[in-house]
Amino acid sequence: MSKTSPRLSSLIAELKSVARDSGADVWRDVAGRLEKPRSTHAEVNLSRIERYANEDETVVVPGKVLGSGALRKSVTVAAVDFSSSAETKIEHADGEVVQLAQAVEQNPDGSNVRVIR
Known about the structure:
Elements: H1 6-22, H2 25-35, E1 42-45, H3 46-52, E2 58-66, E3 76-82, H4 84-92, E4 96-99, H5 100-106, E5 113-115
Parallel strand pairs: 1-2, 2-3, 2-5, 3-4
Helix pairs in contact: 1-2
């Protein structure tokens, strides 16, 4: 792993550790996606989250969430990074903005999680 961002490197290591300890394949999958070159990291608009997520679900984006589109569902969105407009729109839809590391701590077994890329 030759990531230059220490924050991203420690996040990948934490994801792998939790996946090993809990057996949650979802965190292993997200770590694998984040290990790839940055140009392949997901950039997901809110319109895609609106289309594919269910109400009261945790959505994990292995990359950045962008603010294009509208979000009407109350979902928890966990990602590496968020645009400021995406954060505002998620909070206005009674959703929750969570950093990926927090989502792993809150839900180590990976239940009720949907990965969107």
